[in-house]
Design a protein that fits this description.
alpha/beta; globular; Rossmann fold; six-stranded parallel sheet; beta-phosphoglucomutase activity; magnesium ion binding; single chain; EC 5.4.2.6; DNA polymerase, domain 1; PGP-like_dom2; 2 domains; 217 residues
Length: 217
């Protein structure tokens, strides 16, 4: 049995922290008299915190100094972290644990490849940190998705060829990053949005054991 690299995004794939990001960004937007909706929030999927702020400021046509931006970024993260305090195992999305356990049993390489700079505490709070052999997050990379840096680094740390890597992603930028890195891309979400992925599932409950075994080869 061959050993592959299975690389997971965090937000919207392992856990649904997107709702907390939304609330924190909405609070910043409201303070700037910007109407920030759930539809607008889709623009932030898979992009860095700095880029997310620029997108929000663009929505409101707000000009700001770097000092102001830095302050808002700090405030956003503090608000976001305050929402994470009560996170526990119940925050892990349905079907995820079954897949992680299967991959562990099959002795596959398991990595996290996320733009989040809070990945480790989130994985700890939700009780899944021990499943991951490698964690590459926003603290470890300089290029945001769709640049494949985060996934390529994860594969490198697992000592597995990118072409033997499988990425699970819920964002367009993440799927594009996997494809650019010549990895197998598995979209978690809506087919209309993630149509560039090699495979698409609504969520992990739809992923059969046989599909994972097929990927392992």
């Amino acid at each position: 049995m061959s050993k592959k690299a299975f690389i997971f995004d965090l937000d919207g794939v392992i856990v649904d922290t997107a709702k907390y990001h939304f609330l924190a960004w909405q609070k910043i937007a409201k303070s700037l008299n910007i109407n920030f909706t759930h539809e607008d929030n889709e623009l932030l999927k898979g992009v860095s915190r700095v880029r997310s702020l620029d997108i929000i400021l663009g929505l409101g046509n707000v000009q700001a100094t770097q000092e102001q931006k830095d302050q808002w970024l700090i405030q956003k993260n503090e608000d976001y972290l305050s929402y994470l305090v009560d996170m526990d195992e119940s925050e892990v999305l349905p079907g995820v644990l079954k897949i992680l356990k299967l991959l562990k049993e099959k002795n596959q390489g398991i990595a996290l490849g996320s733009a989040s700079k809070n990945a480790r505490p989130i994985l700890e709070k939700t009780g899944v940190l021990s499943y991951f052999d490698v964690i590459v997050d926003g603290n470890d990379v300089s290029n945001a998705k769709p640049d494949p840096e985060v996934f390529l680094k994860a594969a490198q740390l697992l000592n597995i060829d990118p072409k033997n890597s499988i990425v699970f992603e819920d964002s367009v930028a993440g799927i594009q990053a996997a494809n650019i890195g010549e990895m197998v891309s598995v979209g978690i979400g809506e087919e209309t949005i993630l149509h560039e992925a090699d495979y698409i599932f609504k969520d992990f409950t739809q992923i059969e054991t046989s599909f994972i075994e097929q990927l392992i080869g």
